[in-house]
Amino acid sequence: MKKITNALNYFKLCGIFMLFLTQQSFAQQQVSGKVTDSEGIPTPGVNVVEKGTSNGVVTDFEGTFNIEVSEPDAVLQFSFMGYQTQEVSVQGRNVINVEMSTDMGALEEVVLIGYGAQSRETVTGAISTVNADDFNSGMINDPMTLISGKVAGLSTSNPSADPNATADFSLRGPATISGNSQPLIVIDGVPGGDLQTIAPSNIASIDVLKDASAAAIYGSRATAGVIIVTTKKGVPGEVRVNYSSYISTDVVSNEYDVLDADQYVALGEEYGFTVDDAGANTDWFDEVTRTPISHVHNLSVSGGNEKTTYYAGVNYQNFQGIDLISERENLNGTFKLNTTAIQDKLNFSFMLTNSHDNRDFANYGSLAQSLKMNPTYPVKNPDGTWYQRPDIQYGLQWNPVASMYTNTNNSKESRLLGNVKVDYNILSGLNASISYSLIKNSFLSGSYSSREDFFQQQEGVGGQASRSQDHTTSNIVEATLAYTTSIAEDHNLDFLAGYSYQNTFNEGFSAGNNSFNTDAFLYYNLGAGGALNNFTPNFNRSGVFVGSYGSERTLAAFFGRIIYDYKKKYLLNISARREGASVLGRDNKWDTFSGVSAGWIISKEDFLHDNETIQYLKLRGGYGITGNQESLSPYQSLATMGPYFGGSHNAYIGNPGEGSWVQPYGPIINPNPQLQWETKKELNLGIDFALFENGWLSGSMDYYNRKIENLVGNYTAQVPSQILPEIFANAGSMKNEGFELALNAQLFDNDNFKWSTDFVGSYNKNEIISVTSNQFQGSAHDITRVTEGVSIQRLAPGQPVAAFYGRVFAGFTEEGDWLFENSEGDAVVASEIGEDDFRYLGNSIPKYSLGLTNNFRVGNFDASVLIRSALGYNAVNGKRMFHENLSYYSRQNLFESVLDEPIQNSPLFSSYYIEDGGYVKLDNLTIGYTLPMENNRYIKNIRVYMTGTNLITVTDFSGNDPELGINYYPSDPESEVSNGPSVEPYYDYYPVTSSFTFGINANF
């Protein structure tokens, strides 16, 4: 893999430059001292800054500090979260001791609510916050893994050991049946960002807006919820340098047991099969895998003064896959600047993040192929060439090791996120802001199958190459006006009005060619292939194509919000958003989304004020309406024209023998001017509480009921009133209903031992209510196939999304034939089973999601344990259908289980292959030690740690990993195979691993 050296050097120079800018010259006035709280306990981490400069230090673990000031009459500022800021004049003294006073207002946790913030105490919606101190650690190649198992209602399916995989996640169940059910991502206030743009080490906190009343301010993109990511920023004081790094490796934790050579030969002889014994004893899975080594490095520099703060960070990641080829190399740079002027009335902020990805992909079919290969075949011939059966009879036995080395697949991707924002304090309490954001993603990929590749030799087309690129640019302009006031001290009001505009343009190009006479060019010279220039009839044009595309979409909105409270006791939040989208039909481009929520802090009432058990108690409820247009592509509401492909559609122009074939064009999409938003209506009822002395047991409970209407899909159209037999339209509805519970317990909290426990749990029931409307008629239809012609999941009324569907297994005949149960309950052979006998066999989406985290600290040692679970669903191991079937002996290797329960008939999907997918995992175990650095002038602290992830899985599922994805992503209905949630396909495989990480974090 090519290293990204130029960009790395650039960021190194930026870091050196920032260090240079922040150097200060000091006189020799030395001041030292100790900072304590009101009880005399030392207070570490307090910022001690010489007023009016960037000169500053931070108190150590004993609360002591040492600083050189520029003059004897300098003023020192002491500040720390939860305490009042104090200013102390030096007056020529060399020793100053300070006692910090508690600031009750600052102790209130601040929650981001979209275009603003609010204290946790007065929040009326369902919002969860996870701060950096509570993030998961270990090998993190996807930011969502940081909060896996930390948020009630957020279901995550962590990425596999594939370094190029990303986490799959959803909030409170499926949000649509036509597209992405993942929540809207907002990064530092910029909606529509990509989590892969930012380095996990740069994230300071993640807020999750779960219910519609909380998310309605984001309108048509908030149906699946909103995840607000806040990245780190500079703080006034001395220059702070942080370096962190870790190295990690993976070990396969669940390997399939396939037959070895002796077992394979003996089984064939026992059942009278023709045994193809090549004499070797090859562990094919071992041949296509390795022990990967991954490493990550983070460097950040931050600081500033009262007027200006800055933060600059560089992150480098190199992740290797368990297979021989796959690898991801990422370089990320971030710079943030914040400055004030005009007597602090004007605030200017700037943020720029740029991420570059280089990825190498293995032929993932090779991993699945390693399970199928005849174990008596060698990897190479005696002369060093790849071993391969040349006859087509053994076409299913292609050499997976050779395939990995004779195929090249890689990509380069650049992601840029930039934001400029200006805030101005017009009057006391009245603030205006305007911001411009740019999101720019560029993707370039290439693939080449060499002339030595088995399939290229079978096709007889020489080498085959392809190249594709995709560019997306989003321009976002947002402006807000906010006013905060109090009336008679008891009535507090916050007003917000705003405007948002986003334009997104996407374009791309792709081409492929074959018949290369040399492998030297790879995919860098597509014109060197012979197929594009060969017009001979019936010439093999496999993989030969040229295509390009371009599309544009626009979103505009006006929004507002009113937040009111009386004595911080009775709470009200009202928000609305009027939004228009270009992708919708001309009759429905605009709609209004809104939310209202209220709360009552009962613990502030006189009858509970002195209650020793109930320290805090708040009831809240909300109702909101949000929309969804993300599942629609541009122009799907219009009569779109396009080329007709295929021989039956080509047109011959001219006299016989004298004319030519031309490409005809015609309508490819029916127009639908009534195409409109999918709409979610959600009720949320919740309670927040803190119990016992100091509120050591706290938490929240929520009930929600959400109904999603006007589901977008491809429905049958009336012809001839329509040109084509299908149309994109709104028809159908579904619902999600559930409960959530979050608990935090501070079990022990003293100088010698600390122990805290966090538990999150959720239950969700999903159901499709209807797939029809007054105008368009839908029906239950298959969505998932494990192999060609074998359907196993459906979308159907009265069932959850992607419910399993098929025959009911009733046993075997004495001859070993399948028996299935018919609609009358009788056991009959397969030939007597019809479609009417098929039944719904199970739910593919977990009903219960649980997370339990325990944090410990003993002296300088710390430990964290995360147990994560998903229960109440079924899963299918598609490999069993073929690897446990003797009829496939001559085509592939089999699982060892076939020795105990051999199935001799052709595989037929039924409840026989439906398994319990529930699992409990020891998902993350971290042990750390912080080195004492009280007397070190240059190093504030160093922490070393070890982390193990995915260490133990308790499950009845027989497959690779029960975490098989939780969202249904529609695929091309013409596809021979497609994936639904909780299905491990026969044709694809990436082994599950346990990872072990050693890391270090140093602050200077």
From TrEMBL:
Keywords: Cell outer membrane, Membrane, Signal, TonB box, Transmembrane, Transmembrane beta strand, Transport. Residues 121-226 form the TonB-dependent receptor plug domain. Coiled coil: none annotated. InterPro entries: Beta-barrel_TonB (IPR000531), Beta-barrel_TonB_sf (IPR036942), CarboxyPept-like_regulatory (IPR008969), Plug_dom (IPR012910), Plug_dom_sf (IPR037066), TonB-dep_OMP_SusC/RagA (IPR023996), TonB-dep_OMP_SusC/RagA_CS (IPR023997), TonB-dep_rcpt-like (IPR039426). It is found in: Cell outer membrane. Belongs to the TonB-dependent receptor family. This is SusC/RagA family TonB-linked outer membrane protein. The lineage of its organism: Bacteria, Pseudomonadati, Bacteroidota, Flavobacteriia, Flavobacteriales.
